[in-house]
Structures are given as structure tokens and as C-alpha cells.
Design a protein that fits this description.
There is one protein chain. The protein is of the alpha/beta class and 497 residues long. Among the domains are: 50 residues; 212 residues, Vaccinia Virus protein VP39 (Rossmann fold, 3-Layer(aba) Sandwich). Helix content is 43%, strand content 13%. It is built from 20 helices and 13 strands. The strands form 2 sheets. Strands 5, 6, 7, 8, 9, 10, 11, 12 and 13 form a 9-stranded mixed beta sheet that branches. A 4-stranded antiparallel beta sheet has the order 2-3-1-4. α3 crosses α5, α5 packs parallel to α7 and α18 crosses α19. The longest helix has 21 residues. The chain is globular, with a radius of gyration of 24 Å. The structure holds S-adenosylmethionine (SAM). S-adenosylmethionine binds next to α15 and β6. Belongs to the class I-like SAM-binding methyltransferase superfamily. RsmB/NOP family. Keywords: Methyltransferase, RNA-binding, S-adenosyl-L-methionine, Transferase.
Length: 497
């Protein structure tokens, strides 16, 4: 999404070119202004910060330190919004809900600078009040000044000690405010980690503090804290098109687990030659590994026809297409949305032996015959609770109903994937979420309806990765940001009988 149409700014002028009568002057403090405009777009029209911010920075010609500051302020204010709102609420006589929606983003940006950056407090307040005067006028600038001066009187730790519920009395409420997540997400993540949301120990790995050493929800807390850290950029070298060594030669470092992965510690990945040539791409390491696991399961007989049933935008298809080409297999990459199918076509372009083909198709109503495929991956649409590090506003946008609403589609896609697989073939069911309602809940429900499928121990196919076995018998795989430095991807491998 480039959001060009709604931008108040035009592209930067070329050297010597005069601005027209209607061209607004360049903003005085471009970094803070860009951060404010993104927060407004996220709040007012459900924009995605990770898509809008880079295009806005390009469009406005914001580079270097200003771009870094805009990114830090935007992502920081969105990630920490829950904590900052609790603090701002304590600094305002009336309820925060009654504060003008144009002013609220200014206050959040100011709170982030004061509480979580090394910007000197006087500079943080004066620059933010200046921004407020320009975007919402002098009167509300004075209000912002008064509120931010109160915020700046205490550190983040001192403020959270005041505004967060007591940890012993309300551990979920405490973590929710301190680590800035909605309550229901804290509960869902704690449950997925085996730490009982009701506050008591939950069997093995439970959250009780009986030993006097481990506070309740200790692992949940590590996960929530990881969601507020900036994730590293992970690249994938598309098999048959680039080698990890090419990425290392361009300054990346070897990935911990994926044989196709590399970490980029600095610089813009879009500027890398291999990425520009589409021989490499940005892809989380767990996304690489769940696709790889599908290719590692032994299948007797034919291994020539692979299906990606939910392919858009094509990250896993590109990896699978490369691996299919090496084995002389063919990958059909199906995607229901035509625009996203176009992205898939670009991602799989020039797969070795032209092994991959993108099609627009509804995988719940397949146009192919039952039992057509030897290997199928269903990377189902989900809440994305596993990618909260990379999508800073997602935690405020999702609701418990989002997960419930997706379940019928997730079940339909898995049923159809099993129908599309031949006996002896294998299905990978994947989500970028650890929420049990869209992971094992879906797999267990679908498999309980039919006698022609069995769950395999997925961790056996990823034995280079520690601590990933999940589920009652350890049959599933669950990656975690705080354990593996990846997104929280879930994987079930199911053999068709
Ligand atoms: C989680 S994303 C897949 C990500 C992709 N596998 C990758 O690695 O880049 C889920 C995709 O499934 C698509 N989708 C949803 N319902 C579908 C259906 N009935 N048939 C095919 N694709 C569907 C969505 O449009 C979305 O692009």
C-alpha cells in the first residue's frame, strides 16, 4: 500500500525545481511528522505501519538518521501503546478516551521519546509540542506540553509500578500493562506456553511460584518482552537461484538453523543485489523451516506433485519451488486473491526447471482431482499473533473474535488439503500464530472427523532446532521469538493413509 493519494506531501523536488503554488513546504521535523502521519493512518484508516512507513519515507525523501528516528518513534509508540496509554491516563484529569483523536498520537510519540529513548527530556518535550502546534494548533499544543511535562517526571519503571495492577493479585493485568499487550492476548499466549491464565500451575511447565524463585508467567513475560524488541532481518537464498554464501559475501551472517537463511544486521535488504534480482528475499527463519520440514518427510512412491494451497504472497512457494525443481517435482502455488497470486508468480519466477506455477484458485473448492498431490502445505490465514514483533499495530487490531471467525476457513482448508493428497502423501498445516484455537484445535477437530490421516511427530523433521516440540504428546512444532529468535510459527505434519 503506498497511500500516495492521501499524502499531504508530494515527492521531493528535483534540484533547482520550484514548488508550485499548491506544493506544501517540506515539514520542519520530517521524522516526527512522518511518525505522526503513520500513527494517524493506522488509527483512522487501519493502515499497516510496516507497509506505509517505508513508502512514506521514500516519497518524502527522508533518509539516514531522520528515517531511523521516524522508524523508532512509529514502531515504539505502536508497540508500547498499552503502557503509554495507562501512563497518559494517569497524567490527565479526564479519561484518555475523551482526548481528541488528533492529539492522542502526539502524546504517544512524546511518551515514547521521554520513557524509552535517550533523547534528552527537554528536547523530547519541545520537539513534540512543536509538532502538536503544527498539526493540531496552539491551544492543544499547550495541553500536550502540560501532559508531557507530567509524563517526564518519572522513569518508565516508576510509572509502571504506579499504573500496572499488582502482579500477585492480577498477573495477567500486570503483564498486560507492563509489556503492552491486550489482556486476551496475554491469556492466549500464556495458555499456548502451558502457563495457566487462571494464575495457578498448569501441570508440567506450569506457572506457579511455589519454589519462591520463578515468578508466575515467567516464560510468558519473556515472550511479551520479545514482542517489543526490533526483530532482526532474516533473508532466504532461494534454492537453485542463490547460495547462502552469496548473502554472506554481501555482508549477512549465517543463520542459526536454516540452511537457506542469513541474518542482515544492518542496511536496507531491498538494496542487496540478490534481493533486487529476486534470487533472495526477506523471510523469517521459522517460515523457511516449516516449509523445509514438509520436504523432509519420506513418501513411498511418486514424489512429483506438490501443492501450496495458500500461497500469497509467495514466500514459502519460492522456497518450495526451488526444492521441487532440484527433485524434478512440480509445485502448484494456489492463491484465492488475484492480486496476491500475481505476487506469487513474481516470487516463483525462474524457479529451477520452471518447477513452480502460480494460479488463482480457491483451495477449499479445488479445481484439481482428489488425491492429486504427494505433498501439500496449508499456510492458513490466521490472526498473525506469531508475528507481533513485525506488525506493531496488530495486537491492538485483533480480537478474540478474529480467531473464532477464521476457524471455519482454517478447517475447510485443512480438510480440502487432506482430500487433495494421495494415500501415503503428507500435509503440513502451518499458522503464524501459536493460539491453540487456530493451531492444534483445528488439527484435532479435523482429524477427529476422519479415519484416513495421522499426525506425525513434526519435531523429528527439524532436529537441528531445540525446544520446538509442542502439544500433549510433543507431536506438533511451535517456534517462539524468545526461544528461537523467530516468529511463533506452528507446524503439524499429517500423513494421509
Ligand atoms: C498466511 S498467508 C500465506 C503466506 C504464504 N504461504 C507465504 O509464505 O508467503 C494465507 C494466504 O491464503 C490465502 N487464502 C485465503 N483463503 C484461501 C483459499 N480459500 N484458497 C486459496 N488461498 C486462500 C490468503 O489470501 C493469503 O494470501
Amino acid at each position: 500500500m503506498s497511500d500516495r493519494s492521501s499524502s499531504p506531501y508530494r515527492s521531493p523536488r528535483k534540484n533547482g525545481e520550484k514548488g508550485g503554488k499548491n506544493t506544501p513546504p517540506a515539514p520542519k521535523d520530517p521524522a516526527r511528522r512522518a511518525a505522526y502521519d503513520v500513527l494517524r493512518a493506522v488509527q483512522d484508516r487501519d493502515a499497516y505501519a510496516n507497509l506505509l512507513l517505508p513508502s512514506m519515507l521514500r516519497e518524502r525523501g527522508i533518509h539516514g538518521r531522520d528515517a531511523a528516528l521516524a522508524t523508532e518513534l512509529t514502531y515504539g509508540a505502536l508497540r508500547r501503546q498499552g503502557t503509554y496509554d495507562a501512563i497518559l491516563d494517569a497524567c490527565i484529569d479526564r479519561s484518555l478516551d475523551s482526548v481528541d483523536s488528533e492529539v492522542l498520537p502526539v502524546l504517544r510519540l512524546g511518551a515514547h521519546q521521554l520513557l524509552s529513548t535517550s533523547i534528552p527530556p527537554h528536547a523530547a518535550v519541545s520537539a513534540t509540542v512543536d509538532l502538536a502546534r503544527r498539526v493540531v494548533g496552539h491551544h492543544r499544543g499547550r495541553f500536550a506540553n502540560a501532559v508531557l511535562r507530567k509524563v517526564g517526571r518519572r522513569s518508565l519503571e516508576d510509572w509502571t509500578a504506579i499504573v500496572a495492577p499488582d502482579r500477585a493479585a492480577d498477573p495477567v493485568g500486570h503483564l498486560s500493562v507492563v509489556h503492552s499487550h491486550p489482556r486476551w492476548i496475554v491469556e492466549a499466549l500464556a495458555a499456548a506456553l502451558g502457563e495457566d491464565p487462571a494464575g495457578g500451575p498448569a501441570g508440567a511447565g506450569g506457572s506457579g511460584a511455589e519454589d519462591g524463585q520463578t515468578p508466575p508467567f515467567a516464560e510468558t513475560e519473556r515472550l511479551l518482552a520479545a514482542h517489543n524488541e526490533r526483530p532482526r532481518v532474516t533473508l532466504v537464498a532461494k534454492p537453485g537461484r542463490a547460495a547462502v554464501e552469496d548473502l554472506l559475501a554481501s555482508g549477512a551472517t549465517e543463520a542459526r538453523f536454516s540452511p537457506y537463511g542469513a541474518y542482515l544486521t544492518e542496511g536496507d535488504p531491498a538494496l542487496l543485489r540478490e534481493v533486487r534480482q529476486r534470487r533472495a528475499a526477506v523471510q523469517d527463519e521459522a517460515s523457511q523451516l516449516v516449509a523445509l520440514a514438509l520436504t523432509r518427510v519420506g513418501v513411498d512412491g511418486s514424489d512429483a506433485r506438490w501443492l501450496d494451497a495458500c500461497a500469497g504472497p509467495g514466500g514459502k512457494s519460492a522456497l518450495l519451488g526451488g526444492l521441487a525443481g532440484k527433485r524434478d517435482a512440480r509445485l502448484l502455488a494456489a492463491e484465492v486473491q488475484p492480486a496476491r497470486a500475481g505476487l506469487v508468480a513474481g516470487a516463483v519466477e525462474r524457479s529451477p526447471r520452471d518447477a513452480a506455477r502460480a494460479v488463482v484458485a480457491d483451495s477449499t473448492l479445488p479445481a484439481w482431482r482428489a488425491g492429486s498431490f504427494d505433498r501439500v502445505i496449508v499456510d492458513a490465514p490466521c490472526t498473525g499473533l506469531g508475528a507481533l514483533r513485525r506488525r506493531p499495530e496488530a495486537r491492538w487490531r485483533r480480537t478474540p473474535e478474529t480467531a473464532e471467525g477464521l476457524a471455519p476457513l482454517q478447517r475447510g482448508l485443512l480438510r480440502s488439503a487432506l482430500d487433495s493428497t494421495r494415500p501415503g502423501g503428507v500435509v503440513a498445516y502451518v499458522t503464524c500464530s501459536p493460539h491453540s484455537g487456530e493451531t492444534r484445535g483445528i488439527v484435532e477437530e479435523v482429524l477427529s472427523e476422519r479415519g484416513d490421516a495421522e499426525v506425525l511427530r513434526a519435531a523429528d523433521y527439524l532436529d537441528e532446532v531445540p525446544d520446538i516440540a509442542a502439544g500433549p504428546g510433543g507431536e506438533y512444532v511451535q517456534f517462539w521469538p524468545h526461544r528461537h529468535g523467530t516468529d511463533a510459527m506452528f507446524l503439524a505434519l499429517v500423513r494421509k493413509r
